[in-house]
Amino acid sequence: MLFGSQCDEVESRRLLDEAADLGINFLDLADRYPAPPSFEYIGRTEEIVGRWIREQSRSLVVATKFGRPTSPDPNAQGGSRKHVIEACEASLKRLGLERIDIYWMHAPDPGTPLDETFGALRTLIEQSKIHYVGVSNFEAWQLARALDAASEAGIALMATQPRYNLLNRSPEHDLIPLAIAAGVGVIPYSPLAAGMLTGKYQRREAPPPGSRMSVNGLDLDRRFYLSQGSFDVVDVLLDVARAERISPAQAAIAWLLARPGVTAAIVGASRPGQLREAVESIDVRLSPDSIARLDATVELVLPAKS
Q1: Would you place residue 226 in the very low, low, confident or very high pLDDT band (cuts 50, 70, 90)?
Q2: Residue 284: φ, ψ to 5°
Q3: Which of 2, 33, 64, 120 is the most exposed place for a label (fewest CB within 10 A)?
Q4: HSE (side-chain half, CA atoms, 13 Å) at 86
């Protein structure tokens, strides 16, 4: 989501090459990227990744999203049939692909019936423009309604993409139990809480230049994560990482991958080395004591999010 803004094309391609070298074959995008959102740059991320994909010979799984505004035009957003089909065609053109593997609805659209949205998605499946359908940023009740609408349209809703990490455990209440019961994959984004769980941010200090929290337009991340309770959790995470002889990022991702229902984690990177660190977390198994300590701290200092 930072390809084309915080990361220019040269740096973005370097990160994509690193991902390929590490064996990563799943790329998750959105037509609205890069962040922070600006209509002037809408689609730049897909364009950068599309040019890189054209040079690859290996098989890739490519996912992208629709639904967030992509222009001031009120029809260029949401889940209307018009926008879903036009957004898909635009993404395919930018990516240089014949079809998208996973097409995510980026967020709920209260102004459009889900039957219309999933009817349009069925059309795209029948036209072989997309393979699978998922939803992102849906609450449990919204996922339940989406499952019904998908069933009525005769298609499968295969995955949900919540914001889920050690500092935001609300999906555990209802969303993930529903996903498990319905056989829906859970692919969380923000496993490192916008970098908060790497330990790079300090209490009562401004975010370091170049960091995610320092980027103008990403105020939501700062409001969501920069709290004294979050720093209390990070302090314990740092202790756990030292005890386990791993990095804080690896401890945070290993914790997430071990949670019930989690299929995979969407990780981002803005400089080389970050992806390798994340991939190494796949083999990390936190001790029961470390997991219990992290869980107890979250429940104590972040009761509203745990």
Answers
A1: confident
A2: -85, 135
A3: 2
A4: 14
Average pLDDT in the 57-86 region? 96
Length of the chain: 306
Give yes or no for residue 102 having a pLDDT over 70.
Answer: yes
Would the pLDDT of 304 be above 70? no
* pTM confidence score: 0.92
Which ranges constitute the DSSP H helices of the chain? 9-21, 44-53, 81-95, 114-126, 140-153, 175-182, 219-225, 228-244, 248-257, 274-280, 288-301
pLDDT of residue 126: 98
> For residues 92 and 100, is the Cβ–Cβ distance under 8 A?
yes
Reference 164, options 261, 27, 19, 50; nearest CA is 261
Q: In the block, which residue shows the tokens 């107890």? A: 296
Identity at 302, one-letter amino acid code: L
pLDDT of residue 222: 60
Write the DSSP symbol of residue 133: E
Q: Domains (ranges, CATH) in the chain?
A: 1-161 (3.20.20.100), 192-260+270-306 (no CATH)
Cα dihedral 30/36/39/43 (nearest 10): -30
In whole angstroms, give the CA distance from residue 192 to residue 164.
9
